[in-house]
Amino acid sequence: MNLQEDIRTDDPEIYELIRLEKERQRKGLEMIASENFASRSVQQALGSCLTNKYSEGQPGQRYYGGNEIIDKVELLCQKRAREAFGLDADRWGVNVQPLSGSPANFAVYTAVVEPHGRIMGLYLPDGGHLSHGFMTQNKRVSATSVFFESFPYKVDPVTGLIDYDKLRENALMFLPKMIVAGVSCYSRNLDYKRFREIADEVGALLLADMAHVSGLVAAGEIPSPFDYCDIVTTTTHKTLRGPRSGMIFYRKGVRKVLKSGENVMYDLEKKINEAVFPGLQGGPHNHQIAAVAVALRQAVTPEFKLYQKQVMANAKALCTGLQNKGYTIVSGGTDTHLVLVDLRPQKLDGARAEKVLEDVGIAVNKNTCPGDKSALKPSGLRIGTPALTSRGLKEEDFDRVVEFIHEAILLTQEVVSSSGPTLREFKTKLSTDQEVVNKVKALKSRVEEFAIKFSLPGFDDW
Ligand SMILES: *Cc1c(COP(=O)(O)O)cnc(C)c1O
Protein backbone atom coordinates (compact mmCIF):
# COMPACT_ATOMS: atom_id res chain seq x y z
CA MET A 1 0.00 0.00 0.00
CA ASN A 2 1.40 3.34 -1.08
CA LEU A 3 0.35 5.99 1.43
CA GLN A 4 1.09 8.76 -1.06
CA GLU A 5 -1.34 7.39 -3.61
CA ASP A 6 -3.94 9.70 -5.13
CA ILE A 7 -7.57 8.78 -4.41
CA ARG A 8 -8.21 8.50 -8.16
CA THR A 9 -5.91 5.47 -8.38
CA ASP A 10 -6.01 4.30 -4.77
CA ASP A 11 -9.78 4.05 -4.53
CA PRO A 12 -11.46 4.55 -7.90
CA GLU A 13 -14.75 3.31 -6.47
CA ILE A 14 -15.12 6.04 -3.82
CA TYR A 15 -13.54 8.58 -6.15
CA GLU A 16 -16.20 7.85 -8.74
CA LEU A 17 -18.99 8.24 -6.18
CA ILE A 18 -17.61 11.60 -5.05
CA ARG A 19 -17.36 12.68 -8.67
CA LEU A 20 -20.96 11.64 -9.31
CA GLU A 21 -22.15 13.51 -6.23
CA LYS A 22 -20.30 16.61 -7.38
CA GLU A 23 -22.05 16.29 -10.74
CA ARG A 24 -25.42 15.90 -9.02
CA GLN A 25 -24.75 19.04 -7.00
CA ARG A 26 -23.72 20.94 -10.14
CA LYS A 27 -26.64 19.87 -12.32
CA GLY A 28 -29.36 20.26 -9.72
CA LEU A 29 -30.94 23.10 -7.80
CA GLU A 30 -30.15 22.68 -4.12
CA MET A 31 -32.94 24.25 -2.09
CA ILE A 32 -32.80 22.32 1.17
CA ALA A 33 -32.89 25.21 3.64
CA SER A 34 -30.23 23.69 5.93
CA GLU A 35 -27.69 23.13 3.16
CA ASN A 36 -25.01 25.27 1.63
CA PHE A 37 -21.79 25.04 -0.41
CA ALA A 38 -18.65 25.47 1.68
CA SER A 39 -15.84 27.41 0.04
CA ARG A 40 -12.76 25.77 -1.41
CA SER A 41 -10.59 27.02 1.47
CA VAL A 42 -12.98 25.50 4.00
CA GLN A 43 -12.74 22.19 2.14
CA GLN A 44 -8.95 22.45 2.01
CA ALA A 45 -8.77 22.83 5.79
CA LEU A 46 -11.07 19.81 6.13
CA GLY A 47 -8.77 17.76 3.95
CA SER A 48 -5.66 18.72 5.91
CA CYS A 49 -3.22 16.85 8.19
CA LEU A 50 -5.00 18.28 11.24
CA THR A 51 -7.23 15.19 11.10
CA ASN A 52 -4.28 13.18 12.39
CA LYS A 53 -3.95 14.76 15.80
CA TYR A 54 -5.39 13.82 19.19
CA SER A 55 -5.94 16.83 21.44
CA GLU A 56 -8.38 15.88 24.21
CA GLY A 57 -8.85 18.73 26.64
CA GLN A 58 -8.71 22.49 26.28
CA PRO A 59 -5.96 24.59 24.65
CA GLY A 60 -3.03 24.68 27.08
CA GLN A 61 -4.45 21.72 29.06
CA ARG A 62 -4.25 18.68 26.82
CA TYR A 63 -3.99 15.02 27.66
CA TYR A 64 -1.53 14.46 24.78
CA GLY A 65 1.73 16.08 23.74
CA GLY A 66 2.49 17.78 20.45
CA ASN A 67 -0.43 20.18 20.55
CA GLU A 68 1.35 23.53 20.37
CA ILE A 69 0.06 24.19 16.83
CA ILE A 70 -3.36 22.67 17.46
CA ASP A 71 -3.75 24.97 20.48
CA LYS A 72 -3.18 27.95 18.21
CA VAL A 73 -5.77 26.68 15.73
CA GLU A 74 -8.42 26.22 18.41
CA LEU A 75 -7.71 29.55 20.13
CA LEU A 76 -7.84 31.34 16.77
CA CYS A 77 -11.16 29.66 16.01
CA GLN A 78 -12.54 30.80 19.39
CA LYS A 79 -11.34 34.36 18.82
CA ARG A 80 -12.89 34.49 15.36
CA ALA A 81 -16.12 33.02 16.69
CA ARG A 82 -16.43 35.89 19.16
CA GLU A 83 -15.50 38.44 16.50
CA ALA A 84 -18.04 37.09 14.03
CA PHE A 85 -20.85 37.71 16.52
CA GLY A 86 -19.44 40.87 18.10
CA LEU A 87 -18.84 39.33 21.52
CA ASP A 88 -16.62 40.57 24.32
CA ALA A 89 -14.20 37.91 25.66
CA ASP A 90 -14.98 38.94 29.24
CA ARG A 91 -18.69 38.32 28.77
CA TRP A 92 -18.79 35.33 26.44
CA GLY A 93 -16.84 32.12 26.10
CA VAL A 94 -17.13 29.59 23.30
CA ASN A 95 -16.52 25.88 22.93
CA VAL A 96 -15.76 24.98 19.31
CA GLN A 97 -15.35 21.23 19.85
CA PRO A 98 -18.93 19.90 19.40
CA LEU A 99 -18.98 17.60 16.41
CA SER A 100 -22.25 19.01 15.09
CA GLY A 101 -25.40 20.85 16.14
CA SER A 102 -27.23 18.00 17.88
CA PRO A 103 -24.19 17.01 19.98
CA ALA A 104 -23.75 20.70 20.91
CA ASN A 105 -27.33 20.85 22.20
CA PHE A 106 -27.01 17.58 24.08
CA ALA A 107 -23.82 18.85 25.71
CA VAL A 108 -25.70 21.95 26.92
CA TYR A 109 -28.49 19.90 28.48
CA THR A 110 -25.93 17.57 30.02
CA ALA A 111 -24.09 20.56 31.47
CA VAL A 112 -26.91 22.56 33.00
CA VAL A 113 -30.10 20.45 33.17
CA GLU A 114 -29.93 17.56 35.66
CA PRO A 115 -31.04 14.07 34.44
CA HIS A 116 -34.81 14.17 33.89
CA GLY A 117 -34.75 17.92 34.31
CA ARG A 118 -37.31 19.83 32.25
CA ILE A 119 -36.84 21.39 28.83
CA MET A 120 -39.26 23.29 26.59
CA GLY A 121 -38.56 23.61 22.88
CA LEU A 122 -40.65 24.25 19.77
CA TYR A 123 -42.75 21.23 18.73
CA LEU A 124 -40.97 19.42 15.88
CA PRO A 125 -43.97 19.36 13.49
CA ASP A 126 -44.35 23.12 14.09
CA GLY A 127 -40.78 23.86 13.00
CA GLY A 128 -38.63 22.79 15.96
CA HIS A 129 -35.66 20.44 15.88
CA LEU A 130 -35.44 16.81 17.01
CA SER A 131 -32.66 17.66 19.45
CA HIS A 132 -35.05 19.92 21.39
CA GLY A 133 -36.80 16.83 22.72
CA PHE A 134 -39.25 15.33 20.24
CA MET A 135 -41.41 12.41 21.35
CA THR A 136 -44.61 10.73 20.18
CA GLN A 137 -47.28 8.73 22.00
CA ASN A 138 -45.33 5.56 21.36
CA LYS A 139 -41.76 6.66 21.46
CA ARG A 140 -39.29 9.06 22.96
CA VAL A 141 -37.68 9.77 19.63
CA SER A 142 -34.85 12.13 20.58
CA ALA A 143 -32.34 11.21 23.30
CA THR A 144 -33.20 14.63 24.72
CA SER A 145 -36.65 13.24 25.58
CA VAL A 146 -35.17 9.97 26.89
CA PHE A 147 -32.73 11.51 29.36
CA PHE A 148 -34.63 14.74 30.05
CA GLU A 149 -38.33 15.59 30.27
CA SER A 150 -39.42 17.66 27.31
CA PHE A 151 -42.63 19.56 26.85
CA PRO A 152 -43.17 21.42 23.59
CA TYR A 153 -44.57 24.81 22.80
CA LYS A 154 -46.39 25.35 19.51
CA VAL A 155 -47.30 27.81 16.81
CA ASP A 156 -50.78 29.26 16.39
CA PRO A 157 -52.38 27.04 13.70
CA VAL A 158 -53.99 30.04 12.03
CA THR A 159 -51.18 32.60 11.93
CA GLY A 160 -48.32 30.09 11.88
CA LEU A 161 -46.53 32.24 14.47
CA ILE A 162 -45.14 31.02 17.80
CA ASP A 163 -47.83 31.27 20.46
CA TYR A 164 -45.82 33.04 23.18
CA ASP A 165 -48.82 33.47 25.48
CA LYS A 166 -49.45 29.75 25.51
CA LEU A 167 -45.73 29.08 26.00
CA ARG A 168 -45.81 31.34 29.07
CA GLU A 169 -48.96 29.70 30.41
CA ASN A 170 -47.50 26.20 30.06
CA ALA A 171 -44.06 27.24 31.32
CA LEU A 172 -45.65 28.61 34.50
CA MET A 173 -47.04 25.12 35.18
CA PHE A 174 -44.26 22.93 33.81
CA LEU A 175 -41.47 25.07 35.35
CA PRO A 176 -38.72 24.07 32.92
CA LYS A 177 -35.05 24.32 33.79
CA MET A 178 -34.40 25.45 30.25
CA ILE A 179 -36.32 27.05 27.39
CA VAL A 180 -34.96 26.57 23.88
CA ALA A 181 -35.52 29.34 21.34
CA GLY A 182 -34.57 27.81 18.03
CA VAL A 183 -36.14 26.67 14.78
CA SER A 184 -35.51 24.48 11.76
CA CYS A 185 -38.59 25.36 9.80
CA TYR A 186 -39.94 28.77 10.69
CA SER A 187 -39.58 31.75 8.40
CA ARG A 188 -40.03 34.56 10.93
CA ASN A 189 -37.70 36.25 13.40
CA LEU A 190 -37.84 35.03 16.98
CA ASP A 191 -38.84 37.41 19.77
CA TYR A 192 -35.85 36.75 22.05
CA LYS A 193 -36.91 39.51 24.42
CA ARG A 194 -40.23 37.76 25.00
CA PHE A 195 -38.47 34.42 25.48
CA ARG A 196 -36.22 36.10 28.07
CA GLU A 197 -39.17 37.52 29.99
CA ILE A 198 -40.86 34.12 30.12
CA ALA A 199 -37.62 32.39 31.14
CA ASP A 200 -37.06 34.91 33.93
CA GLU A 201 -40.62 34.55 35.14
CA VAL A 202 -40.19 30.79 35.61
CA GLY A 203 -36.52 30.82 36.59
CA ALA A 204 -35.35 28.99 33.47
CA LEU A 205 -32.12 29.31 31.53
CA LEU A 206 -32.59 30.52 27.97
CA LEU A 207 -30.80 28.68 25.18
CA ALA A 208 -30.93 30.05 21.64
CA ASP A 209 -30.22 27.45 18.98
CA MET A 210 -29.47 29.64 15.96
CA ALA A 211 -28.34 26.71 13.76
CA HIS A 212 -30.25 27.77 10.66
CA VAL A 213 -29.74 31.50 10.89
CA SER A 214 -26.25 32.00 12.36
CA GLY A 215 -24.93 33.38 9.06
CA LEU A 216 -27.72 35.97 8.99
CA VAL A 217 -26.97 36.86 12.63
CA ALA A 218 -23.22 37.22 11.94
CA ALA A 219 -24.02 39.57 9.06
CA GLY A 220 -26.31 41.62 11.31
CA GLU A 221 -29.27 41.00 9.02
CA ILE A 222 -31.63 39.63 11.67
CA PRO A 223 -31.93 40.18 15.47
CA SER A 224 -29.13 38.62 17.51
CA PRO A 225 -29.95 36.10 20.25
CA PHE A 226 -26.83 37.15 22.18
CA ASP A 227 -28.62 40.20 23.59
CA TYR A 228 -31.00 38.06 25.63
CA CYS A 229 -29.76 34.48 26.00
CA ASP A 230 -27.58 32.68 28.53
CA ILE A 231 -26.30 30.14 26.03
CA VAL A 232 -26.27 30.10 22.23
CA THR A 233 -25.60 27.01 20.12
CA THR A 234 -25.19 26.78 16.39
CA THR A 235 -24.23 24.53 13.55
CA THR A 236 -21.61 25.95 11.22
CA HIS A 237 -22.65 24.43 7.89
CA LYS A 238 -26.00 26.11 7.23
CA THR A 239 -26.23 29.84 6.45
CA LEU A 240 -22.78 30.26 8.05
CA ARG A 241 -21.36 28.25 5.10
CA GLY A 242 -18.62 26.44 7.02
CA PRO A 243 -17.88 22.72 7.44
CA ARG A 244 -20.29 20.45 9.32
CA SER A 245 -19.68 21.24 12.98
CA GLY A 246 -21.16 22.87 16.08
CA MET A 247 -20.34 25.59 18.62
CA ILE A 248 -21.58 26.52 22.09
CA PHE A 249 -21.39 30.13 23.31
CA TYR A 250 -21.94 30.68 27.04
CA ARG A 251 -22.07 33.76 29.23
CA LYS A 252 -19.27 34.57 31.66
CA GLY A 253 -18.80 37.08 34.46
CA VAL A 254 -21.51 38.69 36.57
CA ARG A 255 -24.99 37.20 36.16
CA LYS A 256 -26.77 39.61 38.52
CA VAL A 257 -26.16 41.88 41.46
CA LEU A 258 -28.16 41.10 44.60
CA LYS A 259 -29.82 43.82 46.71
CA SER A 260 -27.00 43.31 49.22
CA GLY A 261 -24.61 44.47 46.51
CA GLU A 262 -23.17 40.98 46.17
CA ASN A 263 -22.38 39.70 42.65
CA VAL A 264 -23.83 36.42 41.41
CA MET A 265 -21.50 34.97 38.79
CA TYR A 266 -22.26 32.75 35.80
CA ASP A 267 -20.97 29.21 36.29
CA LEU A 268 -21.48 27.90 32.76
CA GLU A 269 -17.92 27.68 31.43
CA LYS A 270 -16.63 24.71 33.40
CA LYS A 271 -19.92 22.82 33.18
CA ILE A 272 -20.18 23.19 29.43
CA ASN A 273 -16.54 22.44 28.68
CA GLU A 274 -16.69 19.31 30.86
CA ALA A 275 -19.95 18.14 29.30
CA VAL A 276 -18.35 18.27 25.82
CA PHE A 277 -15.17 16.59 27.05
CA PRO A 278 -14.85 14.25 28.90
CA GLY A 279 -18.66 14.04 29.25
CA LEU A 280 -19.75 13.22 25.73
CA GLN A 281 -16.84 13.39 23.33
CA GLY A 282 -13.23 12.33 22.99
CA GLY A 283 -10.68 14.02 20.77
CA PRO A 284 -11.80 17.19 18.97
CA HIS A 285 -11.88 17.06 15.16
CA ASN A 286 -9.10 19.54 14.56
CA HIS A 287 -9.46 19.64 10.77
CA GLN A 288 -13.08 20.60 11.35
CA ILE A 289 -12.16 23.29 13.89
CA ALA A 290 -9.65 24.79 11.43
CA ALA A 291 -12.30 24.78 8.71
CA VAL A 292 -14.75 26.53 11.07
CA ALA A 293 -12.05 29.14 11.69
CA VAL A 294 -11.71 29.68 7.93
CA ALA A 295 -15.47 30.14 7.58
CA LEU A 296 -15.57 32.56 10.52
CA ARG A 297 -12.85 34.69 8.94
CA GLN A 298 -15.00 34.89 5.81
CA ALA A 299 -18.02 35.76 7.96
CA VAL A 300 -16.64 39.18 8.95
CA THR A 301 -15.99 40.34 5.38
CA PRO A 302 -18.16 42.83 3.46
CA GLU A 303 -18.69 40.12 0.79
CA PHE A 304 -20.27 37.87 3.41
CA LYS A 305 -22.66 40.62 4.46
CA LEU A 306 -23.64 41.12 0.82
CA TYR A 307 -24.09 37.37 0.45
CA GLN A 308 -26.48 37.21 3.42
CA LYS A 309 -28.42 40.23 2.13
CA GLN A 310 -28.76 38.39 -1.17
CA VAL A 311 -29.88 35.19 0.60
CA MET A 312 -32.74 37.18 2.14
CA ALA A 313 -33.56 39.12 -1.04
CA ASN A 314 -33.71 35.80 -2.89
CA ALA A 315 -35.99 34.31 -0.23
CA LYS A 316 -38.32 37.31 -0.68
CA ALA A 317 -38.24 36.88 -4.47
CA LEU A 318 -38.98 33.17 -4.07
CA CYS A 319 -41.82 33.97 -1.68
CA THR A 320 -43.52 36.61 -3.82
CA GLY A 321 -42.93 34.55 -6.98
CA LEU A 322 -44.74 31.59 -5.43
CA GLN A 323 -47.51 33.80 -4.02
CA ASN A 324 -48.03 35.33 -7.47
CA LYS A 325 -48.57 31.80 -8.78
CA GLY A 326 -51.28 31.34 -6.15
CA TYR A 327 -49.35 29.40 -3.52
CA THR A 328 -49.98 29.81 0.20
CA ILE A 329 -46.92 30.64 2.29
CA VAL A 330 -47.17 29.78 5.99
CA SER A 331 -47.16 32.99 8.09
CA GLY A 332 -47.66 34.93 4.87
CA GLY A 333 -44.01 35.64 4.16
CA THR A 334 -40.41 35.37 5.29
CA ASP A 335 -37.88 37.34 7.36
CA THR A 336 -35.12 34.83 6.73
CA HIS A 337 -33.66 32.38 4.20
CA LEU A 338 -36.61 30.04 3.74
CA VAL A 339 -40.28 29.72 2.99
CA LEU A 340 -42.76 27.04 3.98
CA VAL A 341 -45.29 26.39 1.22
CA ASP A 342 -48.65 24.97 2.29
CA LEU A 343 -49.91 22.67 -0.49
CA ARG A 344 -53.31 21.91 1.06
CA PRO A 345 -55.06 24.45 -1.19
CA GLN A 346 -53.56 22.61 -4.19
CA LYS A 347 -54.92 19.38 -2.69
CA LEU A 348 -51.40 18.00 -2.62
CA ASP A 349 -49.09 16.76 0.08
CA GLY A 350 -45.40 17.41 0.60
CA ALA A 351 -44.18 13.88 -0.08
CA ARG A 352 -45.54 13.68 -3.62
CA ALA A 353 -44.39 17.17 -4.59
CA GLU A 354 -40.96 16.52 -3.06
CA LYS A 355 -40.63 13.33 -5.12
CA VAL A 356 -41.42 15.01 -8.44
CA LEU A 357 -39.15 17.94 -7.61
CA GLU A 358 -36.37 15.49 -6.79
CA ASP A 359 -36.91 13.68 -10.08
CA VAL A 360 -36.50 16.93 -12.01
CA GLY A 361 -33.35 17.90 -10.08
CA ILE A 362 -34.74 20.31 -7.47
CA ALA A 363 -33.94 19.32 -3.87
CA VAL A 364 -36.41 20.50 -1.23
CA ASN A 365 -37.95 18.72 1.73
CA LYS A 366 -41.49 17.88 2.75
CA ASN A 367 -42.50 19.47 6.02
CA THR A 368 -45.53 19.59 8.26
CA CYS A 369 -47.59 22.77 8.21
CA PRO A 370 -49.29 24.25 11.28
CA GLY A 371 -52.55 22.40 11.82
CA ASP A 372 -51.56 19.26 9.91
CA LYS A 373 -53.62 16.34 11.15
CA SER A 374 -50.81 13.82 10.80
CA ALA A 375 -47.07 14.28 11.03
CA LEU A 376 -46.81 11.25 8.74
CA LYS A 377 -48.43 13.09 5.83
CA PRO A 378 -46.87 16.54 5.85
CA SER A 379 -48.64 18.97 3.61
CA GLY A 380 -45.88 21.45 2.98
CA LEU A 381 -42.50 22.04 1.38
CA ARG A 382 -39.61 23.84 3.06
CA ILE A 383 -37.60 25.74 0.46
CA GLY A 384 -34.43 27.72 1.19
CA THR A 385 -32.10 30.03 -0.71
CA PRO A 386 -28.62 29.87 0.98
CA ALA A 387 -27.09 27.20 -1.28
CA LEU A 388 -28.23 28.66 -4.59
CA THR A 389 -27.18 32.12 -3.45
CA SER A 390 -23.67 30.70 -2.89
CA ARG A 391 -23.76 29.71 -6.57
CA GLY A 392 -24.47 33.33 -7.49
CA LEU A 393 -28.21 33.30 -8.21
CA LYS A 394 -29.98 36.66 -7.92
CA GLU A 395 -33.66 37.64 -7.65
CA GLU A 396 -34.35 37.37 -11.39
CA ASP A 397 -32.83 33.87 -11.42
CA PHE A 398 -35.26 32.91 -8.70
CA ASP A 399 -38.10 33.92 -11.00
CA ARG A 400 -36.91 31.12 -13.28
CA VAL A 401 -36.59 28.78 -10.31
CA VAL A 402 -40.19 29.58 -9.31
CA GLU A 403 -41.29 28.65 -12.86
CA PHE A 404 -39.51 25.29 -12.59
CA ILE A 405 -41.04 24.57 -9.17
CA HIS A 406 -44.48 25.53 -10.44
CA GLU A 407 -44.17 23.24 -13.47
CA ALA A 408 -43.11 20.36 -11.22
CA ILE A 409 -46.08 20.94 -8.92
CA LEU A 410 -48.50 21.05 -11.87
CA LEU A 411 -46.98 17.77 -13.00
CA THR A 412 -47.50 16.37 -9.50
CA GLN A 413 -51.17 17.34 -9.68
CA GLU A 414 -51.47 15.66 -13.07
CA VAL A 415 -50.01 12.40 -11.77
CA VAL A 416 -52.07 12.53 -8.57
CA SER A 417 -55.28 12.96 -10.54
CA SER A 418 -54.61 9.87 -12.65
CA SER A 419 -53.05 7.49 -10.14
CA GLY A 420 -54.41 5.54 -7.16
CA PRO A 421 -54.60 7.03 -3.66
CA THR A 422 -51.44 5.51 -2.17
CA LEU A 423 -47.94 6.96 -2.39
CA ARG A 424 -46.85 3.66 -3.91
CA GLU A 425 -49.34 3.94 -6.75
CA PHE A 426 -48.27 7.53 -7.27
CA LYS A 427 -44.61 6.56 -7.53
CA THR A 428 -45.40 3.68 -9.87
CA LYS A 429 -47.30 5.98 -12.19
CA LEU A 430 -44.46 8.51 -12.03
CA SER A 431 -41.84 5.97 -13.02
CA THR A 432 -43.76 3.84 -15.52
CA ASP A 433 -46.23 6.02 -17.42
CA GLN A 434 -44.25 6.85 -20.54
CA GLU A 435 -45.87 10.23 -21.11
CA VAL A 436 -45.17 11.27 -17.51
CA VAL A 437 -41.62 9.92 -17.69
CA ASN A 438 -40.97 12.01 -20.78
CA LYS A 439 -42.33 15.16 -19.16
CA VAL A 440 -40.13 14.63 -16.10
CA LYS A 441 -37.12 14.07 -18.33
CA ALA A 442 -37.80 17.19 -20.36
CA LEU A 443 -38.16 19.38 -17.28
CA LYS A 444 -35.07 17.83 -15.69
CA SER A 445 -32.95 18.67 -18.71
CA ARG A 446 -34.15 22.28 -18.66
CA VAL A 447 -33.35 22.50 -14.94
CA GLU A 448 -29.88 21.09 -15.65
CA GLU A 449 -29.25 23.46 -18.51
CA PHE A 450 -30.11 26.34 -16.19
CA ALA A 451 -28.16 25.03 -13.17
CA ILE A 452 -24.84 24.33 -14.90
CA LYS A 453 -24.52 28.01 -15.80
CA PHE A 454 -23.79 28.75 -12.14
CA SER A 455 -20.42 27.79 -10.70
CA LEU A 456 -20.08 25.59 -7.66
CA PRO A 457 -17.71 26.51 -4.81
CA GLY A 458 -15.11 23.84 -4.07
CA PHE A 459 -12.66 21.92 -6.23
CA ASP A 460 -13.12 22.17 -9.98
CA ASP A 461 -11.40 18.92 -10.93
CA TRP A 462 -13.75 16.66 -8.99
C1 LIG B 1 -29.76 21.60 11.88
C2 LIG B 1 -30.16 21.87 13.27
C3 LIG B 1 -29.54 21.24 14.37
C4 LIG B 1 -28.63 20.05 14.27
O1 LIG B 1 -27.65 20.00 13.45
P1 LIG B 1 -26.81 18.69 13.08
O2 LIG B 1 -25.52 19.28 12.77
O3 LIG B 1 -27.52 18.07 11.95
O4 LIG B 1 -26.77 17.80 14.29
C5 LIG B 1 -29.87 21.66 15.64
N1 LIG B 1 -30.78 22.62 15.83
C6 LIG B 1 -31.42 23.21 14.82
C7 LIG B 1 -32.41 24.28 15.14
C8 LIG B 1 -31.15 22.85 13.51
O5 LIG B 1 -31.83 23.42 12.51
Question: What's the story with the biggest beta sheet?
Answer: 7 strands, mixed
Q: Going across the major beta sheet, what is the strand order?
A: 4-10-9-8-7-5-6
- Rg is 23 Å
Query: How many H/I helical runs?
Result: 17
Average pLDDT rating: 96
The residue ranges in which pLDDT falls below 50 over 5 or more consecutive positions are none
Shape category = globular
Please report the distance between the alpha carbons of the first and last residues: 23 Å
Total strand segments: 17
Q: Structural class, please?
A: alpha/beta
In percent, how helical is the residue content? Answer: 40-55%
Bound molecules: pyridoxal-5'-phosphate
Report the sheet-strand fraction.
5-15%
Explained architecture:
With 462 residues, the chain is of the alpha/beta class. Helix content is 44%, strand content 13%. It has helices at 7-10, 12-27, 40-46, 68-84, 101-112, 143-147, 164-174, 192-202, 214-218, 268-280, 286-298, 302-324, 350-359, 386-390, 395-418, 423-432, 434-451; strands spanning 29-30, 57-58, 61-62, 92-95, 118-120, 149-150, 178-182, 205-209, 231-235, 246-251, 254-257, 263-265, 328-329, 338-342, 362-363, 365-367, 380-384. Helix 7 (164-174) packs parallel to helix 8 (192-202), helix 12 (302-324) crosses helix 15 (395-418) and helix 13 crosses helix 15 (395-418). The structure holds pyridoxal-5'-phosphate (PLP). The site of pyridoxal-5'-phosphate has 15 residues, from helix 5.
